[in-house]
Amino acid sequence: MMTSQLAEIPLADQSHDGELRKTAALSGLKTPASRRSVLRGVAASALTVGALSLTWGNSGRAFADETSPDGRVGWDETDCKGAYPEGYDEEPDASGQFKTAQAACFGGVISSDYCDATTGWHRADTSSDGQTKYTPDPSRCSEKASWQWKTPDGKVYRCSDGTTTVTANGQTQNIDTICRALVS
């Protein structure tokens, strides 16, 4: 193993025999690089890498504000801590395609059955028999209609709030429901 002492390392413009000479490095440039322009390039590179790294924290995907097809705005975070700073534990789905998946969403009966199949947001329709009405509810999560939830396996779901009104035997019941749709 070879080690060097700091004093043994020649200066950039010094030849191996100790004589000072101008180096040929960067001699092809029309204007030689100044210390200031080199530092400016290093700073610009650091800023570029720093800006790119902001998108790497969420599995290479930056979350953007979401807006439903009818103009409702959703959270752009994966835990809804903007509405609930202390957070809360996710709950499993009651039914639907994610019933056996890792839990996500909170605050009502959770299921993909409450989702509009085309948009992935809470349904806004009435069943063919007229007994069940699905209504999006943007006020349950601090005036937002949804939030994104990232599960430990790296999947991101949209949890979209709504109310399902069921009328049967002359009785009407309003149920807080959440549409769980896979985002990525």
Describe the structure.
The protein is built from one helix and seven strands. The protein has 184 residues and is of the alpha+beta class. The two termini are 51 Å apart. 23% of the residues are buried.
> What is the helical fraction, as a range of percent?
10-25%
Give the SSE order as H and E letters: HEEEEEEE
* Biggest sheet overview: 5 strands, mixed
* Gross geometry: elongated
Number of β-strand runs = 7
- Work out the helix count: 1
> How would you classify the helix and strand content by structural class?
alpha+beta
Uncertain ranges: 51-64
Distance between the termini: 51 Å
Cα Rg? 29 Å
Secondary structure layout:
Blueprint: H1 35-53, E1 66-67, E2 73-74, E3 109-111, E4 132-136, E5 146-150, E6 156-168, E7 171-182
Parallel strand pairs: 3-7
Antiparallel strand pairs: 1-2, 4-6, 5-6, 6-7
Structure characteristics:
single chain; 184 residues; alpha+beta; five-stranded mixed beta sheet; two-stranded antiparallel sheet; 7 strands
Briefly characterize the structure.
Helix content is 10%, strand content 23%. The chain is built from one helix and seven strands, in the order αβββββββ.
